[in-house]
Amino acid sequence: MWVIGFVFAATGIVTAAIAAHQPALLAAAGASPELALLAASLTGPAQVGARLLQFGLLGNLHPLWTSRFACVMQGLGTVALILLGGPAAIAFTLLYGAGNGLHTIARGTLPLAVFGPVGFGQRQGLLSAPARLLQAGAPLAFGLLLEGYGAGAGLVAVIALSLAAFAALFALRVR
């Protein structure tokens, strides 16, 4: 429970922080205002595309692997943005959005796969509570981080949270 709760909290922080600051973050990373808005507008389609891919080609993939894959996608997108700057805005958004789309599926399927259906509703509530509390403060904290230390610090925080969630997923054992 602790591991999944941590993963949900870490990925929820990333989701809330990026959702609130994505155009400004992309602009600070070197994208023109037009490119930043265009890229940010692709988040939703990337989420839907990843979900469709998961239901189609990746439908047999275990939720644990779906979660790991989602963390890696978000981390890789962030690394691309750090290394390539503004020109990677669309790549970042597509990878971030796809990872976020897969995380939304994993939030429901991972606990079910790990613990089974008994007590599912109560378990979901317990797992979601810390994530929701942290998500509420994530945009403010991320905004302060960006304002005080710049886009690089914010992107490093995203990578750190994505990697921490990815690593934590290896502590899970499936029945």
TrEMBL record:
Top-level taxon in the UniProt lineage: Bacteria
Leader sequence segment: 1-19
InterPro entries cross-referenced by the UniProt entry: MFS_trans_sf (IPR036259)
Record-annotated membrane-spanning stretches: 35-57, 69-96, 149-172
Keyword Isomerase found: no
Record key words, sorted: Membrane, Signal, Transmembrane, Transmembrane helix
Protein name: Major facilitator superfamily (MFS) profile domain-containing protein
